[in-house]
Amino acid sequence: MKEKKKQLTKAETQVMNILWSLPEQQGFIQDIIDRYPEPKPAYTTILTFMKILTDKGFVKPERVGKANRFSPLVSKDDYTYSFISDVKDTFFDGSFTSLVSFFAKKEQYTDEELAELKELMTKIESKR
Fold it and tell me: Which domain of life is it from (predicted)?
């Protein structure tokens, strides 16, 4: 049986996005709070999230003086790929074409975005 990958909740994702965006992708609780939109969460709230993220294996704490500095153990790209792959497998029977078609039918794209997509597809085709 395939092992279920750990996923982030919406709130955990918000914390991880802030951590991923920090210089050198590491920071203290206060660094994370400082980058939160208003209303900013309590220090203890972020501390709880960091404990959960540590337990889930997404971050590691490193003692620096009297505080912990946190670093991600998973890159944003790796997590995003894993998450989208799970969506593809769960909702689209593993079909990349079905996944892309679904969004192509639901989204409104600008001419510039369509041109970018066509250029990307051309580059991918030329590498085959």
Answer: Bacteria
- Name residues of the chain where pLDDT drops below 50: 1-3
- Token match 């689209």: residue? 92
Distance of CA 19 to the CA centre of its chain: 10
The residues near 27 (Cβ < 8 Å, ≥ 6 apart) are 19, 69, 70
Question: Please, what is the Cα angle at 22 between 19 and 27, to 5 degrees?
Answer: 70
Here the tokens at position 59 are 């971050």
| pLDDT for the residue 5 | 65
SS3 letters across 36-101? CCCCCCCHHHHHHHHHHHHHHCCEEEEEECCEEEEEECCCHHHHHHHHHHHHHHHHCCCCHHHHHH
pLDDT value for 25: 92
- Counting the structural domains of the chain, the total is 2
Whether residues 81 and 60 share a domain: the answer is no
Tell me whether residue 49 is in a domain: yes
In a domain, 5, yes or no: no
Instruction: Tally the C-alpha atoms within 13 A of residue 65's C-alpha that lie toward its C-beta.
Output: 3
